[in-house]
Amino acid sequence: MHPYGGHSEQRDRGVTVTSTHQAGPPAAHAVDLTKVYGSGDTQVVALGGVSVEFTAGQFTAIMGPSGSGKSTLMHCMAALDTPSTGQVFIGDVELSSLNDKKLTRIRRDRLGFIFQAFNLVPTLTAQENITLPLDIAGTKVDQEWFATVVATVGLGDRLKHKPNELSGGQQQRVACARALVSQPDIIFADEPTGNLDSRSSAEILAFLRRSVREFGQTIVMVTHDPGAAAHADRVLFLADGQFVDEMIDPTAEKVLERMKSFDATTAGQVA
Ligand SMILES: Nc1ncnc2c1ncn2[C@@H]1O[C@H](COP(=O)(O)OP(=O)(O)OP(=O)(O)O)[C@@H](O)[C@H]1O
């Protein structure tokens, strides 16, 4: 039995997690992903055969102890890294079948990214940062959608400011708007509230939640924070490069309890 208790679909290696809320094709999915770093004595199995589906219009949080493979999984799913074996699909496109040019295009046109460190271009204004992916692609900015996104993240009076003239929370709102403006199939957010105070975190999480509810956006978010995970529709728990459990309609209390049971099991193994 795995550390989080029982689950409906136990396979040889970890749990296969499938979407539960809606029918319809997943926005992205992975089949038996492995990622191995190094070789011999220094070999690290970061992902040990992970299969997962991300349903369109759903907000998924990924949690797990440090080193459990969360970032590795996100990077493989988001075409920022290549798995050792297994397949990643964005819609029905399998990433390993694409050359560099097509990968760049899929990242630009169909994927959105929000990083812990904001990753804004310091010499550009907030507005220029938000439209940068579209400008690079040579795509005309849909002004109505741009106005909706900017209003949603509450940046109306800050558009002419450069990142160093904005607070951390405001910078992350710019990053959220940048991810959303191209209406990607899926947004990958790697600890988006990791550098923010609790008030700014709450604002960003409310915005992510709203973009799922009102715009049908699909979001996958790595977080260490049970309160952040509670904004998601479901939480997937990783341990040692395997999915070990899934929680639908999480609350911060339930997530915290689950994490405690994991810590207790780990401590038991060490003792
Ligand atoms: N480039 C690399 N070379 C070697 N090992 C790596 C590399 N990147 C990650 N790892 C290892 O792979 C495992 C998974 O790392 P990963 O960063 O995915 O974990 P994580 O769950 O995101 O951790 P954290 O919560 O601390 O960010 C860890 O043991 C890590 O040390």
TrEMBL record:
Output the Pfam families linked to this UniProt entry: ABC_tran
Matching entries from SMART domains are given as: AAA
A molecular-function term among this protein's GO annotations: transmembrane transporter activity
Q: Does the keyword Protein transport apply?
A: no
- Spans annotated as Disordered: 1-25
| The keyword Iron is annotated on this UniProt entry | no
Could you list this entry's UniProt keywords, alphabetically sorted: ATP-binding, Nucleotide-binding, Transport
Matching entries from PANTHER family are given as:
ABC TRANSPORTER RELATED, IMPORT ATP-BINDING PROTEIN
What is the name of the protein in this document? ATP-binding cassette domain-containing protein
Query: Whose protein is this, by species?
Result: Phytoactinopolyspora mesophila
